[in-house]
């Protein structure tokens, strides 16, 4: 029998055992010690720890200060929030801050490069981690391709061109939305891929320089707006909130997507010199700085031009034209292009780390997990995703799937917030799992009911009822868990306070869950249909490939090193200190 026939026969035999392997692997979890040592070593060489807290702040700010604020602010001001768009940014910033707190605690306790994938695999099992990782990768690749195409548009504006397609090549015969070839977008992606392959530290320095210039550029827009604007435009013609509270909240759901990118800093955990100090400062600090800049930017725009005269597209450029600063329009195009490059650099840095760690888990081919011994970077993952992103950016106009990206990202943030509560009280605190799972179910249910009542404009008492129910069950759960964990494990509570953790638990992740559900329900029905197709595709891939690869690697090759389900939960706290010792 030929070698290929043997492989086919072996694969068919594996498929026949799919139900058994799914039972063994779907909820299989790892301890932090295993994740940090055994799994990480599958990459061969270690990633080099060269980053400081200010590198993480620059990476977080650079990842968020991309094209989002230039695209969303004008549209939201005109159609949803009016001059109160800055309040929408504050609300969205609070939601992003709560999610970033959840990421930070996980990143400090488990300083590996996998981000949400690693956090959920440690807490809820292999399939949940894989599902989150696949959605984050999808968001990275497609959004990077879209942002790269926007780079071409803004760069053309910087050179005085009014047609955004002037530097693209139209190919007749290809379907619409796929027939404008964007070679500048491909070029910038490939150049950044080469930078990222060379060194993380040098890439971080490049990002730091670009981010500093970008912040200076933001400062120019803010100061110019305040100097040339008028406070009267904030209340004319229909007041500060012409569309009411509903308009402000709907606007917050839209501008929230300008914050996507703060999770990139958490994926750099393996390359930080002092993760316990640097990660909280880097992740939380970048969200706070970005929120402040977004609020000042939106205020500047609304002071320059009354909200009903703001242009939906290229709003900042048109605003400068209306106040007589035509030269500043070209400057805005150049500054936006620089911000897009910085945002791309950070996002491509993060996506390679996600894929590298997923490869370590054997859920994708293991060669994607290899770290180059001399550069200390995940070379194969970086090149593979760079080529994928460039290929998509060459052909595809991605407006049709932007909401698909959004729903996948919000779902991952929702899952991470759930995982933090479960890990803090069940895995670490040893509370009964049923109590926490029931609380999480009621919390999600109240958020869904509140969001439906809001979406379909039901009676106000429904909002009060479901919102009050959420507050009541969270307060009751906090009281029960506080008494349970302190009574059973007082020493563990004292030890936990020695390292950074989310304060006022369980309120921050509970509010994050509530807000993420609310923002998801604001999306269009079509986005749910497209997400359903994507979810089916990645699930089929897991059933046909991932589960068999991980089963053979973990259950057979390693003799069942992976601990399944509740068996892992009883041993996590004994191994926690090993991670802290070996980080250095």
UniProtKB/TrEMBL annotation:
Cellular localisation: Membrane
Signal peptide: none
Membrane topology: Multi-pass membrane protein
Entry keyword set: Membrane, Transmembrane, Transmembrane helix
Keyword Heme carried by entry: no
Any GO molecular function: amino acid transmembrane transporter activity
Chief localisation class: membrane
InterPro entries the record matches: AA/rel_permease1, CAT_C
TM stretches of this protein: 51-74, 86-106, 127-147, 178-197, 204-223, 243-262, 283-307, 327-350, 400-422, 434-454, 460-480, 500-519, 531-548
Annotated Gene Ontology cellular component terms: plasma membrane
Keyword Transport: no
Domain spans labelled Cationic amino acid transporter C-terminal: 500-549
Homology family: Belongs to the amino acid-polyamine-organocation (APC) superfamily. Cationic amino acid transporter (CAT) (TC 2.A.3.3) family.
Protein name: Cationic amino acid transporter C-terminal domain-containing protein
Biological source species: Vigna angularis var. angularis
Gene expressing this chain: Vigan.01G370900
């Amino acid at each position: 029998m030929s070698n290929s026939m043997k492989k086919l026969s072996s694969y068919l035999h594996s498929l026949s055992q799919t139900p058994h392997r799914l039972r063994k692997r779907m909820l299989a979890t790892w301890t932090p010690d295993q994740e940090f040592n055994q799994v990480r070593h599958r990459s061969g060489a270690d990633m080099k720890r060269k980053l400081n807290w200010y590198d993480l702040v620059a990476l977080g700010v650079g990842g968020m200060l991309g094209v989002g604020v230039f695209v969303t602010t004008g549209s939201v001001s005109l159609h949803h929030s009016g001059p109160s768009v800055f309040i929408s940014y504050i609300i969205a910033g609070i939601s992003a801050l709560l999610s970033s707190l959840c990421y930070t605690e996980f990143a400090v306790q488990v300083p590996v490069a996998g981000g949400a994938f690693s956090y959920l695999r440690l807490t809820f099992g292999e399939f949940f981690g894989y599902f989150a990782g696949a959605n984050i990768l999808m968001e990275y690749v497609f959004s990077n391709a879209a942002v790269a195409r926007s780079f071409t548009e803004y760069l053309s504006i910087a050179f005085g061109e009014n047609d955004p397609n002037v530097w693209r090549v139209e190919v007749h015969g290809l379907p619409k939305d796929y027939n404008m070839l964007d070679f500048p977008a491909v070029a910038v992606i490939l150049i950044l891929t080469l930078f990222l392959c060379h060194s993380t530290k040098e890439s971080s320095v490049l990002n730091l320089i670009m981010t500093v210039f970008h912040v200076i550029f933001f400062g120019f827009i803010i100061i110019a707006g305040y100097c040339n604007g008028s406070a009267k435009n904030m209340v004319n013609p229909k007041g500060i909130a012409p569309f009411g509270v509903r308009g402000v909240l709907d606007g917050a759901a839209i501008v929230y997507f300008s914050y996507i990118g703060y999770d990139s800093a958490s994926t750099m955990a393996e390359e930080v010199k002092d993760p316990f100090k640097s990660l909280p400062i880097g992740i939380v600090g970048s969200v706070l700085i970005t929120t402040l800049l977004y609020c000042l930017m939106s205020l500047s725009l609304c002071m320059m031009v009354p909200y009903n005269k703001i242009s939906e597209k290229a709003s900042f450029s048109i605003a400068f034209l209306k106040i007589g600063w035509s030269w500043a329009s070209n400057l805005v195009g150049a500054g936006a292009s620089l911000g897009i490059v910085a945002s791309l650099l950070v996002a491509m840095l993060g996506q390679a780390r996600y894929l590298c760690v997923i490869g370590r888990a054997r859920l994708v081919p293991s060669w994607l997990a290899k770290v180059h011994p001399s550069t200390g970077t995940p070379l194969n993952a970086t090149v593979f995703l760079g080529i994928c992103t460039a290929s998509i950016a060459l052909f595809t106009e991605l407006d049709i799937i932007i909401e698909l990206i959004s729903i996948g990202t919000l779902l991952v943030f929702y899952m991470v917030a759930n995982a933090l509560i479960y890990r803090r009280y069940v895995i670490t605190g040893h509370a009964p799992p049923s109590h926490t799972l029931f609380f999480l179910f009621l919390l999600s249910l109240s958020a869904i009911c509140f969001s439906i009542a809001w979406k379909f404009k039901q009676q106000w008492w429904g909002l009060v009822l479901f919102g009050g129910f959420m507050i009541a069950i969270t307060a009751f759960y906090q009281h029960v868990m506080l008494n349970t964990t302190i009574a059973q494990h007082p020493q563990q509570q004292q030890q936990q306070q020695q390292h950074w953790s989310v304060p006022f638990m369980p309120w921050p992740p509970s509010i994050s869950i509530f807000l993420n559900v609310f923002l998801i329900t604001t999306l269009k029905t079509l986005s749910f249909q497209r997400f359903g197709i994507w979810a089916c595709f990645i699930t089929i891939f897991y059933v046909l490939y991932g589960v068999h690869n991980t089963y053979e690697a973990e259950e057979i090759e390693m003799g069942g090193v992976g601990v399944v389900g509740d068996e892992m939960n009883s041993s996590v706290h004994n191994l926690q200190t090993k991670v802290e010792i070996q980080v250095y």
